[in-house]
Amino acid sequence: MEGLQAIKYKRGKLEVLDQLKLPHEFVYENVTTCEEAFDCIKAMRVRGAPAIAIVAALALAVELDHKKDNAQRKEETAAYISKRLDFLMGSRPTAVDLSNAIKLLKSKAEEAVSASSTSGQAVTCADVRLCYIETAEKILADDFDTNLSIGRYGAEYLRRQEMPIPKPVDEAEEFRYFTTSPPGTQGAPDMKYRKLSVLTHCNTGYVYGNGSSQTVFEDVNLEIRLVLSSIPLLTTTRSLATSGHGTALGIIRSLHKMNYLEHAYCTETRPYNQGSRLTAFELAFEKIPATLITDSMAGALFSRMKNEKNISAVIVGADRVARNGDTANKIGTYTLAVLAKYHGIKFVVAAPTTSIDLSTESGDKIKIEDRAKNELTQITGAIVNKDGTVDTSESARVAIADQTIDVWNPSFDVTPHELIDAIITEKGEVLRSSKGEFHFKDIIPERWRRDVQSGTDTETNGSSAIPRTPSEEGTQFAMEV
Ligand code: MRU
User: Which residues form the active site (predicted)?
Assistant: First the structure.
């Protein structure tokens, strides 16, 4: 079945699924200007580090497709692009994907302006606009492959951490083990390894792919029936009810598909409930064995269920990974990392290389977004009728705390790299070295040279990175000129 599309895009038209209304309502918002994109991001109708960058980039692409720059000269188009991107940068500060995308888009526009000097051809406003639009569209398209790779590398990394079972497997318990026998080999599976269970936090499950012409989405349990757009789309994001994608959630999907997964746990993720509203919905929709817990239950879960369920890892996404591996992610991530350490559970960050910020040395330099007080003291949800049924057609906002109490609401926290075992990127895994350090030099060498070494340092870093792709071509690195 085709899944839900979080972002629907064709050149000149951008629609964004309002994630605040999920899982009960599916409403698309037409985003036609940078102001609308800014508001959509700020209000968290679209959220998650890569999606924020994509919506910002594409909103300006829509403006340019409609020639809103009103420019007569190519320099004016570039100046318009720069000004609009600077404006969008203020929408949410913590996720680095947005600033990386902005750097890339600005540099591509500048390159287009100066292209005439090398090609001898006159460059027009239309060329600069087109160059911007194509770059923005490539950011969207590249993210698809990125997510799939993270899922595969992460699942393989976790599988390799499992130790063989010392005593023979009780055959009645067969379903709790996975086989390492290569596909197609004769004979019974060896069943030496337990399937593993994982916990994830927040929501990391959106994904990007080439669009379908029509999507029908039906879930009887939720009494939801949706008929999505019949317009053939250039590129779309599919999410929140589809298969095989996302970053941390992508790894869970891959584990499930590879038959390594026993159970996934997801936290509610207060105060905005991305876990209960979005991740729980995705897991349930895809019938991945899963259980929702409140954030405060993680310690009890590890202490009581670690052995029974073989809870092997906490897997989270990232909004910004500093040069030393310190990672900013949704508030509550740090607490989970401390708990994981205490219980001997791996702590894994799943992040595209666009989320690595080499110019920020360590986590204490990361700016953390503080959000509104009423995110803690009030909540919106669907109406529960007197007979216990849920009326998804109506929602209400209710107060859940004293409305005069002072509130602290940082949206993210920083997990020190000492608590992180592995950072899984689309280029492979980066492990904490025996000295307790992370090194990204081998995985993003060009960016390392540009941002860290400035071309003079010949030091070897002893990194335990395993780069899987020799080339750095693609959106993430095109900015490294
Ligand atoms: O406030 P949000 O919902 O934008 O926070 C999202 C997260 O913290 C995610 O874990 C992170 O952006 C990674 S999404 C692949």
Answer: 319
Tokens standing for residue 36: 């609308």
Rounded to 10°, the helix 49-65/74-89 angle is 150
Which pLDDT tens digit goes with each residue over 121-139? 678 999 999 999 999 999 9
Instruction: State if residue 333 touches ligand 1 by the CB under 6 angstroms criterion.
Output: no
User: What pairing do the DSSP bridges indicate for beta strands 261-267 and 290-293?
Assistant: parallel
**DSSP single-letter state for residue 162:** P
Whether pLDDT at 211 is above 50 = no
Protein residue closest via CA to atom 6 of ligand 1 = 48
Query: Would you say residue 414 has pLDDT above 50?
Result: yes
Do 198 and 264 meet the contact criterion of CB atoms below 8 Å apart?
yes
State the CATH class of domain 169-206+244-453.
alpha beta
For domain 7-138, say whether CATH 3.40.50.720 is its number.
no
Close Cβ partners of 203 (under 8 Å, ≥ 6 residues apart): 47, 48, 249, 269, 274, 275, 277, 278, 279, 282
Domain ranges of the chain: 7-138, 169-206+244-453
Query: Does ligand 1 come within 6 angstroms of the Cβ of 151?
Result: no
Nearest residue to 478 (alpha-carbon basis) of 160, 148, 135, 59: 135
Q: How far is CA 359 from CA 151, 162, 290, in A?
A: 26, 35, 38
Active site annotation includes 319? yes
Residue 309 identity (one-letter amino acid): K
Is the CB of 330 within 6 Å of ligand 1? yes
